[in-house]
Specification:
Number of strands: 0
Strand content: under 5%
Largest sheet: none
InterPro entries: SEC_C_motif, SecA_Wing/Scaffold, SecA_Wing/Scaffold_sf
Shape: rod-shaped
CATH architecture of one domain: Orthogonal Bundle
Distance between the termini: 73 Å
GO cellular component, one term: membrane
Protein name: Preprotein translocase subunit SecA
Keywords: Cytoplasm
Length: about 110
């Protein structure tokens, strides 16, 4: 629309010189007609905006639901241990003869 308006103003400028033959000031006529054309362009743009707004459709995307299969996979993930688990009351593997909870296991939850 804006480019069409610019083209129309160029054509108006080229044709406005003929108004001088009708005893009218071409500058005043150009200002008047250019302003009218600009107002028409603005009104046309406003109508287009309103038309587009009323045609907008809101589309909701369905939310992804977690399935029990996915939850099961998360529950199955466990840390991998290389050696045998040491109990708190077992003898410490360092060879001190103390219980693990009193020796190397101190501060380990």
């Amino acid at each position: 629309k804006w480019m069409d308006h610019i083209d129309a103003m160029d054509q108006l400028r080229n044709g406005i010189s003929l108004r001088a033959y009708g005893q009218k000031d071409p500058l005043i006529e150009y200002k008047f007609e250019a302003f009218e054309a600009f107002q028409m362009m603005i009104e046309s743009m406003k109508e287009d905006v309103v038309r587009y707004i009323f045609r907008v459709k809101v589309v909701r995307q369905p939310e992804e639901r977690k399935t029990f299969e996915n939850q099961g996979e998360e529950a199955e993930k466990k840390p991998v241990r290389v050696g045998k688990k040491i109990g708190r009351n077992d003898l410490c593997p360092c060879g001190s003869g103390k219980k693990y909870k009193k020796c190397c296991g101190r501060g380990v939850s």
